[in-house]
């Protein structure tokens, strides 16, 4: 059974082909370079660039997987959430292909896709506890099947990825800031600055606006005094606090929900400290099925949508 999946919710246009659970191709056209000058993703530009990338991405996905379009049994695509102009393009491409080959369409959820990106290289044993850390989301989900996702805590203000990107922008590191801060943090002293950890211990919800403001204030104060900003120390102290928030909530959720699988998903799951935290919590609580996604499946990609589609179909037959 072959599925063609499309992901286009933000600034990546990606097509993947999966055959009985095995990823045959995962072509990603990224637009980072075109958005860098604006300090972030410009929605109108993202949609226009998707239009330019459709043809070659489809071709590359089919050719590199040695697949003819007629061999596809299902067409999956990201229905929501995301930038509307970007989403519409993915939906139209999916509908066009599905109607041409007369095969069913599967509209899927982007975040559920991120979660299944973690299961491409490792099988889930349910219930799964997934820490979702991405550009627009910070949430903990309990997954009982590919059709049963429970959000037990979510973003109250800024998402963790957004916070990384904004802090990086103020530090003059450019877009996207997450990977740059992660790298710099390794050279800095995490105890150089003490940033606040939100006190909402009884809840699983996440707040990052206080941390963002605290870091921005320090940078502005140092700049006003004419002092050079110790970027590596700021990055290390920020990363320590941003990931400590994740660790605390995740540990609480592990104790309450006693999952059989522990994992992390979304673009920020590429973060070295978050990967360490998840793996050490899995070890501490003896959750043998603990894993982090392969780097290629952390930020937006169509393979994760293909895998979600495959897992949904597997249990419907
Ligand atoms: P969402 O999935 O919530 O709709 P999105 O699709 O825009 O949002 P993703 O592509 O999942 O977001 O993730 C992009 C985010 O991941 C960016 O904020 C980027 O800075 C962040 N990121 C990538 N690598 C790292 C890293 N090593 N450390 C921290 N953040 C990272
Ligand atoms: Mg992106
Ligand atoms: Fe995403």
Report how far the terminal alpha carbons are from each other.
12 Å
Proper CATH architecture of the largest domain:
2-Layer Sandwich
Assembly context of the chains: single chain
Write down the CATH class of the largest domain. Alpha Beta
- Rg from alpha-carbon coordinates: 20 Å
Low confidence ranges: none
Give the fraction of residues assigned to helices.
40-55%
Q: From N to C, what is the helix and strand string?
A: EEEHHEHEHEEEHHHHEHEH
Q: Explain this structure to me?
A:
There is one protein chain. The chain has 317 residues and is an alpha/beta fold. Helix content is 45%, strand content 20%. It has 2 domains: 2-117 and 297-316, ATPase, nucleotide binding domain (Nucleotidyltransferase, domain 5, 2-Layer Sandwich); 128-292, ATPase, nucleotide binding domain (Nucleotidyltransferase, domain 5, 2-Layer Sandwich), CATH 3.30.420.40. It has helices at residues 32-36, 43-64, 84-101, 110-117, 160-170, 177-185, 209-224, 231-257, 272-284, 303-316; strands at 2-7, 12-19, 22-30, 74-80, 105-109, 128-133, 138-145, 148-153, 261-265, 289-291. The protein has a 5-stranded mixed β-sheet, sandwiched between helices. It has a 5-stranded mixed β-sheet with strand order 8-7-6-9-10, with helices on both faces. Helix 3 links the parallel strand 4 (74-80) and strand 5 (105-109). The termini are close together. Residues 9-10, 82, 110, 114, 134-137, 161, 164-165, 176-179, 182, 266-268, 270-271, 299-300 line the site of adenosine-5'-triphosphate.
């Amino acid at each position: 059974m072959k599925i063609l999946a499309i992901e286009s919710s933000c600034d990546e246009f990606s097509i993947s082909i999966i055959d009985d659970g095995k990823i045959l191709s995962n072509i990603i056209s990224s637009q980072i370079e075109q958005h860098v000058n604006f300090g972030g993703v410009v929605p109108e530009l993202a949609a226009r660039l998707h239009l330019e990338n459709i043809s070659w991405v489809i071709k590359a996905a089919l050719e590199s997987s040695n697949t003819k379009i007629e061999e596809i049994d299902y067409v999956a695509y990201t229905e929501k959430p995301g930038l509307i102009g970007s989403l519409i393009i993915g939906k139209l491409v999916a509908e066009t292909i599905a109607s041409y080959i007369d095969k069913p369409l599967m509209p899927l959820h982007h975040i559920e896709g991120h979660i299944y990106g973690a299961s491409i290289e490792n099988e889930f044993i349910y219930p799964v506890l997934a820490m979702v850390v991405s550009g627009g989301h910070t949430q903990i989900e309990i997954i009982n099947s590919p059709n049963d996702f429970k959000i037990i805590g979510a973003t109250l203000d800024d998402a963790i990825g957004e916070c990384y990107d904004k802090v990086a922008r103020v530090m003059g590191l450019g877009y996207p800031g997450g990977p740059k801060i992660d790298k710099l943090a390794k050279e800095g002293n995490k105890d150089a600055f003490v940033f606040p950890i939100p006190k909402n211990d009884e809840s699983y919800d996440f707040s990052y606006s206080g941390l963002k403001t605290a870091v921005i204030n320090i940078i502005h104060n140092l700049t006003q005094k004419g002092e050079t900003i110790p970027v590596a120390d700021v990055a290390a102290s920020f990363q320590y606090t941003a990931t400590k928030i994740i660790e605390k909530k995740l540990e609480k959720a592990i104790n309450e929900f006693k999952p059989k699988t522990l994992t992390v998903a979304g673009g920020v799951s590429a973060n070295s400290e978050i990967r360490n935290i998840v793996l050490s919590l899995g070890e501490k609580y003896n959750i043998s099925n603990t894993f982090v996604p392969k780097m290629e499946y952390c930020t937006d990609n169509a393979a994760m949508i293909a895998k979600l589609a495959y897992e949904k179909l597997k249990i419907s037959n």
